[in-house]
Write a structure and sequence with these properties.
Layout lengths: L2 H24 L1 H11 L3 H4 L2 H16 L2 H14 L3 E13 H16 L8 H9 L6 E13 L5 E6 L6 H17 L4 E6 L27 E3 L1 H8 L4 H25 L1
Parallel strand pairs: 3-4, 4-5
Antiparallel strand pairs: 1-2, 2-3
Length: 260
């Protein structure tokens, strides 16, 4: 990442963290009063810092979610020299047999009627081979669209690290549609980090009905996602460095202003 991109990313993180801290400080007195009233025994046994920390953690998880990662990814993609856009909507034209093939595949995979492990490349190949002169326009929506200087188009569905089946199905449908309409494009199901650890297998079972999460080339998790966005193998580690640097500042600020 260049220095301009790092400043943009830092600004995104600061804005969100400052908003979270300001909200918790504003509601601190009422939070502690409610805890005292609603849990008269526990509030007398457990230190206030624990209750405060629990409130802050819930606010952080709720506020610092998918949308923030989408915006950070946008900054990084633009910083790499690409054109990028969040919430990219695109109407594409595919033939009716392909659309039917996509819907049939997803329905069978959801229900468990399809035996075996999902195979993205094979699925794309088989559906693309379906041919009829009848075409229809369908809408697609991606959390991030990136167009490289080379002309390559990349479409990213960025989801929470433990997506539900509905989210996964919607993402895969749009990914398959875009690959039918634009065979040379790239479409990805992306998670900002692996909740089971960067070096470990991804074990949240829900999306496995539709993707082979640990082996599918269209699934990017953690470092694979960020390095793809930045078009550089060091992007993920550089992003962690930014969080580390800001963490030193916010650790002290949260302890002093909120927990103290």
């Amino acid at each position: 990442m260049n220095s301009k991109t790092k400043i943009k990313v830092e600004t995104r993180i600061r804005e969100k963290m400052d908003n979270i801290l300001a909200k918790r400080l504003k509601e601190l007195d009422s939070d502690m009063t409610n805890i005292r009233q609603n849990n008269p025994f526990g509030s007398r046994l457990v230190p206030n810092e624990i209750w405060k920390g629990s409130k802050f953690e819930r606010s952080f998880v709720t506020s610092f979610g998918q949308g923030v990662y989408e915006q950070i990814a946008l900054d990084i993609a633009i910083g790499s020299g690409a054109f990028a856009e969040n919430q990219h909507s695109e109407i594409v034209k595919i033939n009716s047999w392909q659309e039917e093939g996509i819907n049939n595949l997803l329905s069978k995979q959801r229900s468990g009627a399809n035996a075996g492990t999902p195979d993205w490349e094979s699925e794309v190949e088989k559906i693309y081979a379906l041919d009829t002169p009848r075409y229809s326009e369908v809408n697609t929506l991606f959390d991030l669209y990136v167009q490289r200087d080379s002309g390559t188009s990349e479409y990213y569905s960025i989801k929470t690290v433990k997506p539900n089946l509905d989210q996964t199905e919607i993402a895969k449908r749009d990914m398959l549609r875009i690959r039918m309409a634009k065979p040379d494009s790239k479409a990805y199901f992306a998670l900002p980090y692996n909740p089971y650890g960067e070096e470990n297998s991804y074990d949240w079972k829900m999306p496995y009905k539709l993707f082979d999460m640990n082996n599918c080339p269209a699934v990017l998790i953690g470092s694979d996602f960020w390095n793809a966005i930045g078009n550089d193998q060091h992007t993920f580690s550089e992003l962690l460095d930014i969080f580390d640097d800001l963490g030193e500042e916010y650790h002290e600020k949260i302890k002093r202003d909120y927990l103290g």
